[in-house]
């Protein structure tokens, strides 16, 4: 009989669905990555390669008109798991689901904006300035009314064919874009 074991507390379940429900109830905010020892620390070159790619894609989603406002989503179709884990593992909101092999991490408000500048080592990652006016398109994290999230997710697609497993890791990012005029200080 097949059984499904929780990788976090080693309890056995008769179905995958029961394991999933257990994980959602008991390990909702899990940060532990049981296979962490298999994830090699990425080189600084590799880290900056993926950070740069992310910044380019964010900026492509930003614009200056009214149409540039609202929810945005971007994804990098081949994003290594270890790069994602090493980027976000120390964050308070980092969480991992071993059952579905999925990571999440989000940043919120001014404190989130500050933290992302540190992680990406670039203060200007989240906006684009119009070349002729004072208009900026930017990632919205907080305004006078609300706080907004920038949410990162990593998940995997597996294709089985001819006794081989092909794996694809994808990083997605959801955020809110806004635009407005800013006076130069
Ligand atoms: Zn468990």
Structural notes for this entry:
With 185 residues, the protein is α+β, with helices and mostly antiparallel strands. The chain is built from four helices and nine strands, in the order E-E-H-H-E-H-E-E-H-E-E-E-E. The protein has helices at 16-26, 44-60, 81-88, 109-120; strands at residues 4-5, 12-13, 70-76, 95-97, 102-108, 127-129, 135-140, 149-161, 164-181. Strands 3, 4, 5, 6, 7, 8 and 9 form a seven-stranded antiparallel sheet that branches. A two-stranded antiparallel ribbon has the order 1-2. It is elongated and about 70 Å long.
Helices and strands in order:
Layout: E1 4-5, E2 12-13, H1 16-26, H2 44-60, E3 70-76, H3 81-88, E4 95-97, E5 102-108, H4 109-120, E6 127-129, E7 135-140, E8 149-161, E9 164-181
Antiparallel strand pairs: 1-2, 3-9, 4-5, 5-8, 6-7, 7-9, 8-9
The site of zinc ion has 7 residues, from helix 1.
Q: What is the number of independent domains?
A: 1
Q: What is the percentage of strand-forming residues? A: 25-35%
Main beta-sheet annotation: 7 strands, antiparallel
Q: If you average the pLDDT, what whole number results?
A: 94
């Amino acid at each position: 009989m097949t059984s499904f074991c929780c990788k976090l507390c080693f309890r056995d379940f008769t179905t995958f669905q029961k394991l999933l429900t257990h994980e959602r109830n008991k390990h909702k905010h899990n940060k532990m990555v049981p296979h962490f020892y298999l994830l090699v620390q990425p080189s600084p070159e590799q880290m900056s390669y993926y950070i740069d790619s992310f910044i380019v894609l964010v900026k492509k989603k930003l614009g200056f008109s009214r149409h540039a406002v609202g929810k945005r989503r971007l994804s990098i179709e081949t994003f290594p798991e270890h790069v994602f884990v090493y980027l976000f593992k120390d964050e308070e909101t980092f969480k991992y689901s071993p059952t579905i092999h999925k990571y999440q991490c989000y940043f919120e408000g001014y404190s989130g904006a500050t933290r992302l500048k540190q992680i990406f080592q670039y203060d200007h990652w989240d906006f684009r300035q119009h070349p002729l006016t004072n208009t900026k398109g930017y990632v919205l994290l907080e305004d006078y009314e609300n706080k907004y999230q920038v949410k990162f997710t990593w998940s995997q697609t597996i294709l089985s064919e001819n006794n081989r497993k092909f794996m694809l890791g994808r990083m997605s990012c959801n955020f809110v874009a806004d635009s407005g005029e800013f006076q130069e200080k």
